[in-house]
């Protein structure tokens, strides 16, 4: 295992030499965060055991979404919240993929592209839902943006997990969708393509002439939903690669492993450490951009309607009280560690860290 922070510290100058024209302020912010994660540059935390009065120090995490050493509790909290929203119905997973010809455009206009991908994909699904006589009101959707393939190449696509049904317009009856497929994938792709390209034209962007006429939208049945949620949660808040999959560093080249999507076998990829860093950094999202969004029945504001559906479908359903996940922090004696003081780094240290 090779820590990503070590690679940033060592190969950042070479990265800037090779890819400097492509690096943005968001990329530099990500590198600064990763490099200083769990170091004195972020301050010092003083803890004291409430039982034996022993003391220890720790260094704060950076909390950046691209850092593989952070956000594990945040990831688990999101998954816990989504599990509480699960309905006892069949779920479907729909994946909208941007064609390769638009990836260059997406790199240079990431915020617009990703926002439009969310908007047009969910609008397409809601349109199909409204036009389907087997369904009723708005669909419940959880959409998650992924920008990478398993090899970490740039591959923007949107996963949408959908309960197979919806409330009728009265809000008192659940209308279930039967069958292996929620909607026809080719029909979804045609409508999504038309909506996305219309949005590009309206925004004044130039359309490549050789865009494919057939775009890819996959629609599959995934059972009760939890396995799909677990898969989608994997890279939500802790970067696109786990450090345990960074296998070795030799002659300035990194070897990492990934699981082949077709064979499910582990494969290896080797490239220069600076190029590997760029491979990781190209998936940093614009500051403030939300990678996951809920719609309709799965939106946070629809809690009462969602509980009504849960009661309709499972009369004996019991809603467990909501609670926040907390990490147990214990001393060797069994007592609890208590934070007694936090030392913040001085401004001069912060400026030197940012410039380094």
From TrEMBL:
<feature type="domain" description="Transposase zinc-binding">
    <location>
        <begin position="9"/>
        <end position="98"/>
    </location>
</feature>
<dbReference type="GO" id="GO:0006313">
    <property type="term" value="P:DNA transposition"/>
</dbReference>
<feature type="domain" description="Transposase IS801/IS1294">
    <location>
        <begin position="140"/>
        <end position="303"/>
    </location>
</feature>
<dbReference type="GO" id="GO:0004803">
    <property type="term" value="F:transposase activity"/>
</dbReference>
<dbReference type="GO" id="GO:0003677">
    <property type="term" value="F:DNA binding"/>
</dbReference>
<dbReference type="Pfam" id="PF04986">
    <property type="entry name" value="Y2_Tnp"/>
</dbReference>
<protein>
    <submittedName>
        <fullName>IS91 family transposase</fullName>
    </submittedName>
</protein>
<dbReference type="Pfam" id="PF14319">
    <property type="entry name" value="Zn_Tnp_IS91"/>
</dbReference>
<dbReference type="InterPro" id="IPR007069">
    <property type="entry name" value="Transposase_32"/>
</dbReference>
<dbReference type="InterPro" id="IPR026889">
    <property type="entry name" value="Zn_Tnp"/>
</dbReference>
């Amino acid at each position: 295992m090779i820590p990503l922070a070590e690679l940033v510290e060592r190969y950042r100058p070479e990265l800037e030499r090779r890819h400097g024209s492509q690096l943005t302020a968001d990329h530099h912010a990500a590198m600064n965060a990763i490099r200083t994660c769990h170091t004195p540059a972020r301050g010092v935390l003083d803890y004291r055991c409430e039982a034996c009065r022993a003391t220890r120090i720790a260094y704060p995490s950076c909390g950046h979404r691209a850092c593989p050493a952070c956000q594990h509790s945040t990831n688990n909290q999101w998954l816990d919240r989504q599990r509480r929203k699960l309905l006892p119905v069949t779920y479907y997973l729909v994946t909208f993929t941007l064609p390769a010809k638009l990836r260059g455009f997406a790199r240079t206009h990431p915020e617009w592209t990703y926002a439009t991908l969310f908007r047009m994909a969910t609008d397409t699904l809601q349109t199909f839902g409204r036009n389907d006589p087997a369904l009723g009101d708005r669909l419940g959707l959880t959409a998650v943006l992924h920008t990478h393939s398993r090899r970490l190449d740039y591959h923007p696509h949107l996963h949408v997990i959908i309960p197979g049904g919806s409330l009728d317009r009265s809000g008192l009856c659940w209308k279930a969708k039967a069958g292996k497929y929620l909607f026809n994938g080719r029909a979804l792709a045609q409508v999504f393509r038309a909506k996305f390209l219309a949005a590009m034209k309206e925004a004044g962007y130039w359309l490549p002439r050789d865009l494919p006429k057939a775009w890819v939208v996959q629609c599959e049945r995934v059972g009760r939903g939890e396995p799909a949620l677990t898969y989608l949660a994997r890279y939500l808040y802790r970067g696109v690669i786990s450090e345990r999959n960074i296998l070795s560093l030799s002659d300035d080249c990194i070897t990492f492993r990934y699981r082949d999507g077709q064979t499910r076998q582990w494969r290896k990829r080797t490239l220069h450490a600076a190029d590997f860093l760029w491979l990781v950094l190209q998936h940093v999202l614009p500051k403030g951009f939300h990678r996951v969004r809920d719609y309709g029945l799965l939106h946070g504001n629809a809690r009462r309607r969602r509980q009504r559906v849960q009661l309709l479908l499972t009369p004996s359903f019991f809603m467990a009280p909501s609670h926040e996940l907390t990490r147990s922090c214990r001393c060797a004696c069994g007592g609890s560690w208590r934070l007694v003081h936090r030392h913040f780094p001085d401004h001069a240290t912060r400026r030197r860290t940012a410039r380094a």
